[in-house]
Amino acid sequence: MRACMQFRTQNVLEHGEAVLAKYQTLMAHARDGRLPDGWRQPKWWTPETAQRLAQAQPPEAIMTNYLRYHDCGKPICRIQDEAGRQHFPNHAAVSAQLWAQIGGHPDEVWLMANDMLLHTGSAEECEAIRGRHLAPALMFAALSEIHANAEMFGGIETDSFKSKAKQLERRTTQLLKA
C-alpha cells in the first residue's frame, strides 16, 4: 500500500489514514450534532440525524481497520492506460476479497466490498442496503472520504467535489428515508 500511489503526493495507505482522520473528526463533532468547521453541510444533516448516525456506528476497531485499509486491493488491481493514467478496476471487491483472505472481520469485509456504493451506485443498488446495520458506517465513511480527497483536489468549492457531494447527498438521503 505504501508503494502504490493514490494521488501524486499520497500513497494508498496515507489515503486510508487521511480518511480515518476525517472520520474521527466527524465522529467527535457528530456526537454533539455538529459538523466539523470547513465541511460542506449536507441537506440531510440535522443535529438529531447526526447524533443518530454517530450512535449507530460500528465499534471503533472495525471502523479503524476498514477506513485505514479500505483500498488494500489497489496495488493488486492497478493498471495504467495508454496515456499513463492509473486505474483500479473493481478495487472495492478486490480489497474485500484480500481482507477476507487475511482474516479480516466480516463487517470490515462487507464495508470494503460496499465502499464505493454511495459514491457510484445506482438508486437500486443503494436500496439493497437500506436498513442494514452497517449503512450508517458507509454514510459517514463516504462523507469523510470526499472531504479527505477534497484537500488533494482544490477544496470543497471545486466542480469535482460538488459533483461527488451531490451524488452522496442523493444516496444518503435515499437511505435515510423512513
Index terms:
single chain, 178 residues, mainly alpha, two-stranded antiparallel sheet, two-stranded antiparallel ribbon, 4 strands
Q: If you had to describe this structure to a student in words, what would you say it looks like?
A:
The chain has a domain at 12-72 and 116-176. It is globular, with a radius of gyration of 16 Å. The N and C termini lie far apart (39 Å). By secondary structure, it is mainly alpha-helical. The model has no long low-confidence stretch (mean pLDDT 94). Strands 1-2 form a two-stranded antiparallel ribbon. A two-stranded antiparallel ribbon has the order 3-4. The protein has helices at residues 12-30, 47-55, 60-69, 74-77, 91-101, 106-113, 117-120, 123-127, 135-150, 159-176, and strands at residues 5-7, 10-11, 79-80, 86-87. The chain has 10 helices and 4 strands.
Number of helical regions:
10
Spatial shape? globular
Main sheet specs = 2 strands, antiparallel
Provide mean pLDDT, rounded: 94
Low-confidence stretches: none
Structural class: mainly alpha
Any idea what the radius of gyration is? 16 Å
Give the strand tally.
4
Widest sheet: strand ordering: 1-2
The amount of beta strand, in percent, is: 5-15%
User: Roughly what percent helix?
Assistant: 55-70%
H-E string: EEHHHHEEHHHHHH
Euclidean distance between termini CA atoms: 39 Å
